[in-house]
Amino acid sequence: TEITGNRGRNQELSPEARSAIISKREAGVSVKELEAEFGVHRNTITKTIKRWETHKTVYTLPRDGCPEVLSRCKKQLL
């Protein structure tokens, strides 16, 4: 079940792929087996699992950077 077959190098995993990795890992599948099945590096598997354990989400987290110019209230006014 290679969910990430069309995924290019340095592209993020889809939330579906992340949830599949997490559910299979919780079912007892080894990291090495997941690495072969999804075609990603073992570090990607481990980081995905750590993200789940820390933040309980499979979605991309907001990145650091410049704060937004408009506040949420001002955006609603636009």
From TrEMBL:
Source organism of this protein record: Mytilinidion resinicola
Protein name, per record: HTH psq-type domain-containing protein
InterPro entries per the UniProt record, alphabetical: Homeodomain-like_sf, WH-like_DNA-bd_sf
Positions of transmembrane segments: none
Gene3D superfamilies: Winged helix-like DNA-binding domain superfamily/Winged helix DNA-binding domain
